[in-house]
Amino acid sequence: MRPPLASPTSCGSAPPQGGAPLRPGGAGSAGALDRAEPVSSIQFQLDGKTVEGFEGETILTAAKRHGVDIPHLCFKEGLRPDGNCRACVVEVKGERTLAPSCCRTVAAGMEVQATSERAVKSQKMVVEMLLSDMPDAGYKWIGDDATRQHGELSEWAAKLDVAVRPELKALRREQPAADVSHPAMAVNLDACIQCNRCVRACREEQVNDVIGYALRGQASKIVFDLDDPMGDSTCVACGECVQACPTGALMPKSHIGSQQVDRKVDSVCPFCGVGCLITYNVKDEKIVSVDGRDGPANHGRLCVKGRFGFDYAHHPQRLTKPLIRKPGVPKTLGDGPRPGDYLGAFREASWEEALALAAGKLKDLRDTHGRKSLAGFGSAKGSNEEAYLFQKLVRTGFGSNNVDHCTRLCHASSVAALLEGVGSGAVSNQVNDVEHADLIFVIGANPTANHPVAATWMKNAARRGAKIVLADPRRTEIGKHAWRTLQFKADTDVAMLNALIHAVIDEGLVDEAFIRDRANNFEALRENVKGYSPEAMAPICGIPAETLREVARAFATAKGAMVLWGMGVSQHVHGTDNARCLIALVTVTGQIGKPGSGLHPLRGQNNVQGASDAGLIPMMFPNYQRVDDAGAHAWFENFWGTPLDDKPGYTVVEIMHKALAPDDDPHKVRGMYIMGENPAMSDPDLNHARHALASLEHLVVQDIFMTETAWLADVVLPASAWPEKTGTVSNTDRMVQLGNRALDPPGDAKPDLWIIQQLASRMGLAWKYEGEESGVAAVYEEMRQAMHAAISGISWERLQRESSVTYPCLGEDDPGQPIVFVDKFPTDDGRVKLVPADIIPAAERPDADFPYVLITGRQLEHWHTGSMTRRATVLDALEPMATASMNQADLEAMGLAPGDVITIRSRRGEVAIHVRRDDGTPHGAVFVPFAYYEAAANLMTNAALDPFGKIPEFKYCAVKIERGGVPMAAAGYGTGATGDNPPQSWTAST
């Protein structure tokens, strides 16, 4: 049995003192975000016995703790108590009417009868009346010990021995028709008891405001938006309503019918960096549905990808046999990949033959051309253990530090600035610490699309009075909840942020004590921002000076002000300078090292934090120890028992350049091993990147699908999807979390951890990791030793007990540190280093030939390069093909309507794509997601690098837009959509 998770304060360790609950933080929170002290206990009578309750605790919750299970239907842990179903009524001595136990709190000396004749009679009557309205032929919901036709309602009827009398059945309401218009969920309001759990889940937990309660009396009903079919509503398919529904009136389409499953397996969501804990429901060796678990990052909440994006693991295009390129077949994508038809270019092989060729050729290249001739790209979608072994293989087997992964393409500049300034590349405060913030500064991020569950904590905080400031060239959905929106001109981040810092200093709002005790180089910063007054910067960044000053004042005077940012900050040639400015802003205001404050770069992929921690970067050993630091270098040489390269390796884009270097370059990259990455889609200037990959003498790709990168490989090794492996991942909140294997890999596909070890063995490394799941616990233990300064207190056994533990955690009794930098920074002198920044323009600016700015990014339904999500049925149905977003004024100026085709062209490439209207996109800009091969945004992006973080400038390049063009045919990953039949949603503002 899984032990209950504790609050975020205890980081998944011991329960609160004495088992006392934490004081609820407000409507809808259910105490999920609280750091309050445990409340005092009181004595009251329950069914004639003296029992202990806690201040603010409801009778229902207290009774359950003491083994008295009171019927309830409208109540659900995590939702605000509503008290509308009256199934939970109890007798309270001295009171004339029965009291709803889910809303009534205990009081000292109170005498409660939960099982008296009067209370039970009323409970039975409510259950019978609700059951009488249910349809006769309901779905069969098979639980652990009872057959239930209508979920929790039938379960309580069975427990109370309730049967519906014919007289009540004869008065049954007219049954509404089913609504199956949504790709993910079925609506059967004939089973609805109007408990309002779905309304509270949608409006108060997720704050999506789609589900409402309309009309009155007998006509009252649940509605979506203005009584629209669910499929036509603004529903974002988070599925919170499905998880909340007690009767099956709302159900996932993937799991209609018998709810009996073969097993439930606890794991972690494989998509974004929020790290939601989940449970896979497995039947007939397939995942049929996913439930949110009460993890410290999500408290049961999920988004559309986490809840409905799971069936990619069962897609018929899964690789199940090792593949070897046929002789003479050129390395080209041609007119497009054929993910289900690759045997014309590859032949199937045995594992022995494929591994021998893969490792043998890499070894030959190393021995012939030197250790710099090989490189490896690891994965942020694999486990920590895989990342650790992968970088160890490159460093000890390949012999160089040419190892990198997608962090180079998302937050490398953020990490560079953070390591330089505060001595740590990780977040200072966890996302849900926004609960304690007065002001939440969101810059260069679109959390409702990229980190939806994290966005719910922000929206919850706004409902409770916190001020959200959205700073972004695009106005996104979180702007609906913002106090102020700073829609600054693209590429003017430094100008705007320096103006805020100037205003803080100019208006005497600097935290002088914090600067005196904990910061260096303040005078240089003060001198540098003298020329960046809000008045001077307003015409540059496009934000009125008074608005900049107003935001600066609010930030500086807030009890807690927290900064969260995304790739809109980092993916620039000045990305490191952008992050330096954010560090300076929180430092001069003292907004770091306390609740509701600090710096939080929102991590993109599910394990980009952990993969970086584990050393999957070219200049750092595990735990960010520089490879050119003599002490760290000597420690790892001793730890791994082998000589190591003492020079930093090449980064992602640099490796591509080195693959095209002349033969006389001693560092020319000739062979690569790529695990779970897709640079043929994710790298900038894709024509160049694909040319580089195709030019390699030997490319080994390990993946679950025939990705665009795998099409260019010499050997393809079929690997395991996330539900098919056991391992840990580390989320954006610095939580190390354990996922358990729910399925076996299909066919002859193998676990990634096993494949890495097999290649290592054939390259001459004498590794030995014994134990279940390819020795994952042994690998973790070695990684824990290598990262002892961060996770020494997080043992494998502890993770099996607790699922999630926050680092730094240095002892078995250490609960972990959700807030860091409280007393000092992990720098040489314990102080933050302020680094002034000046305006550096983008590497490529709009001009007469290329007058528009291209902005790239992700969208809610799809993830990264689309290799997983475009093969997920629901996600593909919701967003089947690529679109470019422009505002209405720009569309009208070009004579375009939503759904028309445009051709976007940069100096490097072009795509033909359908256009959709999005008035949040600024004038003179076009936004394109990068998940679609048919309209690959990175064909156009610029490979210019930030000089510090070595990250490409994905967020800004010059393009021209022309009417017309011929979009590429759907690549065949999912159902696809044709240009003749674009989704209806394109014809309206989004």
From TrEMBL:
Record InterPro entries:
2Fe-2S_ferredoxin-like_sf, 2Fe-2S_ferredoxin-type, 4Fe4S_Fe-S-bd, 4Fe4S_Fe_S_CS, Asp_de-COase-like_dom_sf, CT_Formate-Dh_H, Formate_Dh-H_N, Formate_DH_asu
UniProt keyword terms in alphabetical order:
4Fe-4S, Iron, Iron-sulfur, Metal-binding, Oxidoreductase, Repeat
Stated EC number for the protein is 1.17.1.9
Enzyme class per UniProt: oxidoreductase
Q: Which Pfam families match?
A: Fer2_4, Fer4_7, Molybdop_Fe4S4, Molybdopterin, Molydop_binding
Region: Disordered, residue numbers: 1-34
Could you tell me the superkingdom of the organism this chain comes from?
Bacteria
Q: Which Gene3D superfamilies match?
A: 2.40.40.20, 3.10.20.740, 3.30.70.20, 3.40.50.740, ADC-like domains, Dimethylsulfoxide Reductase, domain 2
Q: What residue stretches are annotated with the 4Fe-4S Mo/W bis-MGD-type domain?
A: 262-317
UniProt domain 2Fe-2S ferredoxin-type: residue ranges: 40-118
Q: Provide any one GO MF term from the record.
A: formate dehydrogenase (NAD+) activity
Q: What family does this belong to?
A: In the C-terminal section; belongs to the prokaryotic molybdopterin-containing oxidoreductase family.
Q: What is this protein called?
A: Formate dehydrogenase subunit alpha
